[in-house]
Amino acid sequence: MLDQKLEEQSGRFDRKLEEQSACFDQKLEEQSACFDRKLEEQSARFDRKLEEQSARFDQKLEEQSARFDRKLEEQSARFDQKLEEQSAWFDRKLEEQEARFDKKFEEQNTCFGKRMEEQEVRFDEKLSRSIRESENLVLEAGERNRAILEQKIDDLRVDVSELQQYYRANRMQQDTTELLRKQVKGLEERVEILEARIG
Questions:
Q1: What span, in angstroms and rounded, lies between the C-alpha atoms of 26 and 34?
Q2: Which residues neighbour 134 within 8 Å (Cβ) at sequence distance 6 or greater?
Q3: How do residues 119-144 score in pLDDT, each as one tens digit?
Q4: What are phi and psi of 171, to 5 degrees?
Q5: How much is the pTM?
Q6: Spatial separation of the C-alpha atoms in residues 114 and 120, rounded to whole Å
Q7: CA-based diameter of the chain, in Å?
Q8: C-alpha span between 199 and 19 (Å, rounded)
Q9: Angstrom distance (rounded) from CA 176 to CA 34
């Protein structure tokens, strides 16, 4: 009896649990479907807001880019103007500097020309004086060499004369010696003949 009641009670509990589970699943599905709809609606609203925000951002970006381009063009125009003014100022300064340089160069060239002329005059004077001194030295050296050569020639003449005298004396001595040798030889021959006769 108790087991039967327990089984009946367990059966009712299972049926209620199944009913409760089915109801819970149904509600969960409904809740999930509702959540999906809301999520889709929220995503759609978010997409629309994102598109609107992107459109506003693109518009602002285009406006900002346009303002930046205008400012850049204005800045470039001012820079070009300043660059032209600076270039014109630099050209004027360069022309002035070239004019001063040309003037100084002409003055320096004139001064250099005068100095070169003075230097050439001094050089010509020194060269002429040096040539005259060299000519005098050459003439003096020639005179000294001529006197020395004449003295040597005189000495050579004396030596030649002495050699000629020595040669003549030596020749006479040789002739005398040859004559004496012949006489001695003749005397020896005579002595030999006399000795032969005496013997």
A1: 12
A2: none
A3: 888 877 887 787 788 777 878 877 88
A4: -65, -40
A5: 0.29
A6: 10
A7: 224
A8: 209
A9: 179
